[in-house]
Structures
1.
Amino acid sequence: MLDARQQNIDTLRTPEWFRSATRWTQLTFVENDPEKYDPAFWIDVFKRTRSNAVCLSAGGYIAFYPSRIPYHYVSNVLGDRDIFGALVDAARRLDMHVMARVDPHAIHDDAAKAHPEWVMINADGTPREHWAYPGIWITNAYGSYNTEFMPEVVKEIVRDYDIDAVFANRWQGHGVDYSEDSARRFKDMSGYDLPLKPDAEDPAWRAWLQWRRHVLTDIIVQWDDAVKAIRPHASFIPNMSGSSLMEFDLSVIRKHCPFLVVDHQGRRGVEIGWSAGRNGKRIRATFPDRPVVLITSIGPEEEYRWKDAVTTPEEMQLWMNNGTAHGLYAWFTKFNGVVPDKRWVEPVVDSFLLQAAVEPVINTMTPTAEVAVVDPSTTLRHWAPEERSMAERHDLGLYHALVEARIPFELVSDQVLTADHLDRFKVIVLANACCLSDEQIVAIRAYADRGGSVVAAYETSLRDENGILRSDFGLADVLGVNLVSGPRGIVKNTYVEISGDHPINDGYDGAERIMGGTRLIDVKPAAGTSTPFLYVPDFPDLPMEEVYPRKQADGAAVIARETGKGGRTVYIPWNIGEIFWEVLAADHGRLVSNAVRWALGKAQRVEVEGPGVVDIAVRESEDGLAISLLNLTNPMMMKGPVRDNIPLSKQKVAVEIPNGKTLHRAWLVVADRAAELSIENGRAIITVPEIERLEVLHLNWS
């Protein structure tokens, strides 16, 4: 624990406190914890994990301290105890940073009867009872509960306890509230009645999303101002879920949230381990300078909950280690202070010690890449949160294809398409940025005019920021295409045919055609473009005797061009990202990687060769480069929980040495020894002999 104390000593209770809050323990109390849990066990966990920060349940639905606020329900077994305050004091004696957790999403029956305006209302006018625990009520996040009652709770906690921040969970509401107050306020702003269902085509739904964004943003300001009025160094930190900040006013986040917390606690279903790092990239896509903390659960993250269960060590470590590889601060969460199953302790300790080992290198460097995938917030915010994953399939497919291809990349948000953000990259990739404003299109066009390369697919730029269909692609001139018709589909049994000799159709030796998409757009290529693939006209998939093409390939299925300004563009007019995510066809992955590599127009700055699946992250400073290599290779890579981790054998890393620099040292941070290296044609060739979970290769220039 001495390491944590030494790390924190210069930042304790200062406005910069969060910069040394890099390893978090979260304990979420349950109602009977005051008489059941063992605080000594948790203090030992703080020490063993070298946690330098802690998040503890304070209040909201249940208070774990003796609150004096009317209708702020206090645990019925608290008695004369103050378990929140006692652990705050214990953590402070260890020189840890402390954050108080509040959960305002539900209230007890007495509060609901006394203040019916605090309760969320269903579309049929009935109060919304809690879906999981009958007899309590869902709060209206957009009304006086969050703007009057909860600020008083926050002020009481900040005033009475030595804390650095208040963290709010489930504070954003659960869909549309149909109370008279919400209906009136929404209509005053928009002129619409409240929408009855999520529908991206419905202007009332789009207006409601904007209204909700405005209301939630105001809450952030109000709660943060309340915190700072009492403790100027402290902040209100809203739980951002797994979002890309699309639901908030960015100027308010910039002013009021010095660091950001992502609550995507683990894999679900066939989700893959790189999702943890993607969460950090999505936040960095908007605020590349803000620290990001990733919450990891010790239990499974399936829809059936099992919140007091423990998943496998490999599953926990995969999630935390992938976050570490991409520069996210580590945070594990345990629900219930009583610990009937202690199998999570050692894996968390190992992961936190690994985080501590690499922090001195990666925390002093800035993420960098030559390629960026555009995070399409303008498109995704039209979808209801519970349905947004359907729209994200395009982006997930492109993301996975780049990971498999070992192409290091970052994300950049379409909310910040400034020259400063875009010009950090040589290639930007738009998997399906369907909705783009005129201003966003101008920014991308200007990027291409400055020599940047663009890879785009499917409906990118076909709609404006409000979801209104354009008559042609907004980026038609950039991509060298015009819309003819479509999209159409779902179409089965489609193919695209290799056309001519082009780097984008390289590597398909022996094939004349490969699988196509299921949703297709017909386009007319501009003069001077190349078409490495052509559509094969549709033909039946049954009866089997009828499964053969009737016509010659015709119509551009991939369009490539040199911009004449130093860059290149590639446009794929079908749903390659979505269908790759669903089918994972190797030919589609190759097409994506070929397109991006051709658009880059040169050898990658960092190349990694070897067996297995590796998630690569690159960070740099003036005098060095750090390459994180996260081993994703396991027998259940896309279905959890992971039961085993297969160590990787030798990896060959080739790195371009900057002009005017020489390589002073190559160090394996986790192995804690020098790496074998040679210099060939201006590139450092380094051997990483083995990767169990994570290795960080640290190169120093001189």
2.
Amino acid sequence: MNDHQPLRRWAIGAALCLALSCPVMATANEPTSAALQQALAQQLQRQEASLPIASFYELRGGQPAWQELQRVESLVSALNTLVDDGLTPDDYQASSLLGDFQQSQQLDEQAQARFDVRATRSLLLALDHLSIGKVDPRRVEPNWDLPRPARRYALPRVVQAVDGGEVEQALSLARPDTAAYVQLRNALAHYRRLAEQGSVPYLPGRDESLRPGDIDDDVQTLRQRLTLWGEPHLLAADSSAYPMIGVQAAGGDRRTFDRELEQAVMRFQRRHQLQEDGVVGERTRLALNMPVSARVDQLRINLERARWIRPSLDRTPNVWVDIAGYRLHYTRPNGEHWDARVVVGSPSRETPIIHSSISHLTVNPSWTIPPTIMREDVLPRVRQDTAYLTRQNIQVVSLSGETLDADTIDWQRPGGVMLRQVAGSSNPLGRVVVRFPNDDMIYLHDTPARGLFQRDHRALSSGCVRVEGVTEFAQLLLQDSGSRYQLSSLINSGRSDQNVNLPTRIPVALHYLTAWPNREGDVVFREDIYRRDAALLAALETA
């Protein structure tokens, strides 16, 4: 509904009622003077249409909403809870509303009407930011492929909550109610509390890693850092000192790297997507020394991303690739979950954010080498030795599909040719490709290099996503979409480039998240492999 339409209807009706002295139905607890109603109508005629302000007042019968101290206090209290969503309450004037209300009550009806509309704008802006995000993702993600969604809350229920003085309930109507969002929000509150505690010494750099069995002064500092990050049992501390430097070890020599400390290191490594070996090497040391404020910012950033991606995770079935988490998650039609490790694009060839639907599979695929890989990876090798093409089962093909003799090509200037690797065990696409429409030619696929899935850092591909156990995944897609095909039969037939359509397309999304809960509900912090966090944090601060 155009926001001006209810405004015009209500303003005309209010003017007629004022002229004829007819009664106006009010939903507020106290009657409103005709002068204040008229002042409110005048204020509404000046409002922009970006927020449903006029619709809000139409649902209230044209009555002001914020002329009682208790209700304004409820609004301020609710806006202050937005800090746990990673938002800034003062963006919604939380610190000034109460004083402005009290001042307006000492002035005329125009001042009171101005305040009322201002308070409503603060509430509706907060609802928008909770519902669809504060930052338009297209500002910080150049390849974002979706328009901003519609508001995901019911305005009549918001009005009902306001009338009942339950403004926090109104905010909850817009706030994502997914388990992941709740866990991120709880984690932010926890890390804010940590940030308020005393400083803890940093673990110094070392030529050698700290290992179980070591006896060293740095082990004492390690205990203190781990205590800060949620392992209080490692130190027997007075509550007034925790987690300050002077606390004592929970038993034995606090300089000894014992079994209990090793287990705590492994839990920390698990929560920070590090190799779980119990050894404090360089990457683990850097994670331990991360300022708490940096983790607070990381959580704020990913709460915003959670508000963006909420629609793509609400559907069943759905497939989503957690790029920075190196995981694929498939929620099947029956609610069962299938997960797998993945390899994603390297920092120089990033896997983009994508929202699409899986349309078909390609079984025993050949591989037409993309232009970037051909130019940067393959041509330098071919120029040194044209036999490289034969060893890799790569054909030279014209743009029309005709097979060409590699020895007739000027490989210094090979324009007008493509390189295609035939299906087989050395083909980088493996035995199956999962395809979905997108502008970046990205797909999910098999790989012969299965050892890559054992690595902790898996940003190694040229942009497409390699999936561990992709043949099982592909068979589930066939089964869940109602296909009659069996993947094993298709693979064993030996026919190359078999395209098999899914009778029902399955939604797929590729998202970039640097902090996200795991299946156990623990928030895992990931490396910002594509260096995207800083731009979003800056946008949150300035939007």
